[in-house]
Amino acid sequence: MRRTDFREFTSRKSIQSARGPRKIEDFVGTGIIETTFSKIKPCRSFCRCKRPHCTKNHHTILPGRMRNLDKFVIRGNKPLCGEVTVSGAKNAIVAIIPATIMVDGLCRIENVPQVSDVIIQLEILQQMGARVRSVNPSTVEIDCRGMRNARTPEDLMRRLRASYYLIGALLGRYHRAEVAMPGGCNFGGIRPIDQHVKGFEALGASVSIKNGFVYAEASEGLKGAHVYLDVVSVGATMNIMLAASLAQGQTIIENAAKEPHIVDLANFLNAMGADISGAGTDVIKIRGVRRLKGGVYSVIPDQIEAGTYMAAVMAAGGSVTVRNVIPKHLECITAKLIEMGAQVEELDDAVRVTRAQPLNKISLKTLPYPGFPTDMQPQLGAALCLAEGTSVITEGVWENRYRYVEELRRMGAKIQVDGKVAIIEGVSELTGAKVRACDLRAGAAMVIAGLAAHGVTEVEEISYIERGYENLVEKLQGLGADISRVTVIEDDAIPMAR
Ligand code: EPZ
Q1: What is d(CA 43, CA 55) in angstroms, rounded to the nearest whole number?
Q2: Is 185 a catalytic residue?
Q3: How far apart are the CA of 194 and the centre of ligand 1, in A?
Q4: Could you give the CA distance from residue 181 to residue 159 in angstroms, rounded to a whole number?
Q5: What's the DSSP call for residue 145?
Q6: What is the C-alpha separation between 493 and 490, in angstroms, rounded?
Q7: Does the CB atom of residue 420 touch ligand 1 within 6 A?
Q8: What is the band of 44 on the pLDDT scale with cuts at 50, 70, 90?
Q9: Ligand 1 site, residue 397, Cβ cutoff 6 A
Q10: What is the DSSP string of 275-293?
């Protein structure tokens, strides 16, 4: 898929509302079916006449609900070789974009990944009155000075988890916020925000949740407080840091999360004039300032994207140099891959990963940083399906982050799940199958399994994956993978043969 800058994403016209009979060629060139129709015969799964290699558009699509069934098609069992460059950290930028709301000036942000979570957030800011300009595919300028504290667009808000950062930012700037409850990947039930609320209330806000919205108001303004988090929470740590940046006085967050993206948000805010210290430790001090000015900031590389490519090499074999990384952020991932039998060479801003032997079984428990990241658990789960012996994974952060296991079983994996523990009995090979992405990292796991599997794997519901991985297909193709993105249009109405 050619690289698109932010403008194109935010202005793409939907073809969902088909008005009357639509012909297939209506969609060609809209960027929706660029791979299916532009140069090859209509995809068989689209031409339902089932005639082999039907070459005529003899179906007229009746009005009805159109659905894009985007999928990745992977022909696996090919080693990965070459170099791949990591993009900016998704979990950092989804907090930095809302943070610009609090800045009284122009923010220029570099190394921004083109992923749908970013596009949605920029769209939300634009709909609330901010000016967003794409300088180049990875640099965006945001000016929120003209923003009105309008009610945020609910439909967009519910499509991502990180919409909750708007609460901290709007509270920080306007002392009030009205934000739809966040969406995000499903890990076994709703994802609580009680620690976020605890922090906002400590700062002097009253918070209520009704009709699917979070209402927060601090009529007397926000005042610094001492907040002790009951749970190590990335989101709550970042959200309280946002609101406290413009509060009166000092705020201390104890039992704070320490992920690299938390340090990145603190560095962004400090670059705009905030006064934050201790980010990356479990005690963060924020001295409220009167104003945040504009400035320039570059987002850190995405440790999880880097780890995903490293896990892909372990599953498919080969040798890959992963560029634009901060090796320190990868230490916990690298240590586990070495246990699995990887050869890892650390360079200044790159790591070279080689699978030179069969995979060893391992035991793994996910924990908050600097422990092994939960966001790498599905990816390693996929690779461990091919290890010699039985591996054990314990999910230490989320209730149920094993929805991908059912999909791996369709490819021949032998995995038993009991609560937060997965027992993975290694098999000699996985076989290609039709599978789906249950969430962002589960989707990445399915791609990894497809790269290693014998035969063809089709991964559906790839919109989850494209929330957090920029140009995944092109990057994997650059490593020799046989992967393509296919879009077919399904309609609920029965096509009428002419
Ligand atoms: C962030 O989610 C990430 N998302 C997640 O990554 C990641 O899995 C998670 O942190 C843990 O590292 C973003 O940054 C957008 P938490 P977040 O608050 O902030 C409990 C990905 O794949 N909790 O650290 O929602 C919670 O139930 C995504 O990129 C409360 O009890 O996670 C969980 O058990 C998926 N009350 C634990 O804390 C709260 O108020 C950690 O959650 C908040 C959280």
Answers
A1: 9
A2: yes
A3: 12
A4: 10
A5: T
A6: 9
A7: no
A8: very low
A9: yes
A10: EEE-BTBSEEEEE--S-B-
Say what the alpha-carbon torsion angle 115, 118, 120, 126 is, to the nearest 10 degrees: -140
Cα-to-centroid distance, 316 and ligand 1 (Å): 30
Whether 91 is in the pocket of ligand 1, judged by its Cβ within 6 Å, is: yes
Whether the per-residue pLDDT at 273 is higher than 70: the answer is yes
Using CA atoms of 324, 327, 331, 333 in order, give the dihedral in degrees to the nearest 10: 20
- The two beta strands, 106-110 and 295-298, are parallel
Q: Is the CB of 469 under 6 A from ligand 1?
A: no
| Amino acid identity, position 355 | R
Specify whether the CB–CB gap between 353 and 319 falls below 8 A: yes
Q: Which two tokens stand for residue 111?
A: 């190394």
Cα–Cα nearest to 109, from 127, 128, 96: 96
Helix (H, G, I), strand (E, B) or coil at 470: coil
Mean pLDDT along residues 218-224 = 96
The active-site residue out of 47, 144, 185, 438 is 185
Phi and psi (nearest 5°) for 76? Answer: -90, -165
Q: Is the CB of 236 under 6 A from ligand 1?
A: yes
Question: Cβ distance 326 to 303 under 8 Å?
Answer: yes
- CB contact at 8 A, 465 and 444: yes
- Rounded to whole angstroms, the Cα distance separating 255 from 265 reads 17
Q: Using CA atoms, how far apart are residues 48 and 71, in angstroms rounded to an integer? A: 18
Cα 235 to averaged position of ligand 1 atoms, centre (Å): 6
Q: What residue owns the CA closest to ligand 1's atom 25? A: 235
Alpha-carbon gap, residue 57 to 444, rounded angstroms: 34
User: pTM (2 decimals)?
Assistant: 0.87
- Give CA–CA dist 6/137, Å, rounded: 7
Which is higher by pLDDT, 402 or 21? 402
Task: For the chain, give the mean pLDDT.
Answer: 87
Give DSSP secondary structure letters for 369-424.
Answer: TTSB-GGGHHHHHHHHTTSBSEEEEE--SSS---THHHHHHTTT-EEEEETTEEEE
